[in-house]
Amino acid sequence: MTKLDRIKKYAETLGKASKWANSGDQITSIESIQNEESKSEYIYEFYCLMRILDDLANKYDIEITNNTAINVFPKAPASKKNYPYFLVKEKGTGKLLFEVCTGVDIKGLADETSAPDISFQLPQDHLLPTHQEVFMIFDAKFKHKLTAKVSDLEFYKVAGMVKNLACEDADKNAIMDFFSLAKLKGNCILTNANSYKSNHSHHNLFNIKEVEKFDEGVDFNVIG
Amino acid sequence: MSTYMINATAGHAEIDYPLAQTKDKYNGVFTIRNSKTRVSVSYNDEFTSIIDNSESDYYCEKIELLNKGYIKSVKTEEAKELTDGEKKDNEKRIKKKLKPLKYYIHKVHFEEAVPFKTHRFLDDYTYSLLKIYKRYVRPGRHFGRVITELPSVDFDTLKEERIYVDRTLFGRLINSMPYQNRLQFLLFIIEEFNEADLRKIPFSQAFPLLKDFVGTGIVEMGKYLIKAEELINDNKAIFKNNTNVGFAYEADLKPIVSNKKREKKKEPFKIDIISEQVELFKNVFEIDNDFNELFSSNELNYKKADRELFDKTFNKRA
Hints:
The structure holds two protein chains of two kinds.
Chain A: H1 3-17, H2 42-56, E1 60-65, E2 71-74, E3 85-90, E4 96-101, E5 106-107, E6 113-114, E7 118-121, E8 134-141, H3 152-164, H4 170-173, E9 188-191, H5 200-206, E10 209-212, E11 221-223
Parallel strand pairs in A: 8-9, 9-10
Antiparallel strand pairs in A: 1-3, 3-4, 4-7, 5-6, 7-8, 10-11
Chain B: E1 3-7, E2 13-16, E3 26-34, E4 46-52, E5 63-78, H1 84-95, E6 104-115, E7 147-149, H2 152-159, H3 165-176, H4 179-193, H5 203-234, E8 245-248, H6 259-265, E9 272-273, H7 274-287, H8 291-294, H9 304-315
Parallel strand pairs in B: 1-4
Antiparallel strand pairs in B: 1-7, 2-3, 3-6, 4-5, 5-6, 8-9
């Protein structure tokens, strides 16, 4: 194939891959460079979730629950009752220790709802989580430019969620440990790009860690 | 002297030429049958011809550039016998109280014709001809008539077998994206260059942004999906050995019914499955793993003079 032919074939196959085969939705929604918030971040969020579960599986027995014949995860924040989540149990004994959930609505202290991308919750027998069940939250921020930084808006939005869900002491009170992701213990912003600030004191003040370069083939760095 | 594209597909301008002699310059004849008393080509006009060899209508990859040459002479004769189709048409005309048509056979003799050597398919020139200004997926649509007049710049492009590489790379990529992404990219460009007239933005400046857009937007997502699938397969126990994983909006969640039931109800299935998409992305990466390398115009033997000529031609339209 000549290079021009290869380019043509590449564009054709890329075109097919750029839309979801069933729904026809575009795989990615890229906002303008001024507004870096990407609407459909669920693919990066799911990647982050899998990395966390993969790590936790070294220490715990994990089991999916509330699922159906297909394990369907949300494309946007949703109700916990409609999507699967993960039960994390003590290795060998089956004792339920905590839950890992995807982007579900959680009722906060003043009755307002927050939907962090990943939440760590206490075992519960209902599907309407509140701040009382949530002990730690993660939020994923995908940036199209690797030189980009988490914005101030994004950072303080997560700070607002932490306050709303009363999980300020996540790093101290979390009833779990990671395996090789030990530095992530606490409320985290996960991004493939760069952190909002490199000021550890600032981040401690807001009870948030920023994990920059959380991506494939690179080492991540934690601030806070 | 004018320049034309002649459609030599069956049913248009039937071509006759000595098949054995197609290496060097050769002579031949086009036969055109219609109800017009004359055709637009005449002595000394130059032409290129296309032929659609496929059975389906204008599947662009199959439209070949057959040859290029000079018109020697045109002889027109009235058709003595009408075809069945023509007779039927005339019967209809008479019923409508219109005059029946006469039909003519035009023999267009050509000489010094040579075949196309380097770029033999019409589709190769999709982004290099002024005449093709829309419907880039079906460039043949612009040459549906038996004879189409070509702007002389387009004729030169075909005669010299020149490709506007910058626009081709750009066009192929941008037209492969879903509609919403195309729109987003256009807004992106307008914002970046603070210029609403896109034709004023040179390709060389816009192209890196497009590469970036496609790379980080689409290609990167493919890599995350592939990696996520790997992690799912590494941790089958977590999923109770059911590694069928997907995404959907809350509104699109329907009780998972069997295939048969779903087909009966004709429900659109809006749950997107990771493994299916991973297969599509693997097809992409099989063709090329280094997106940046593929779309650099380095190895394309692109003459600077050609690029300048094309830039000038296409920018004149603005």
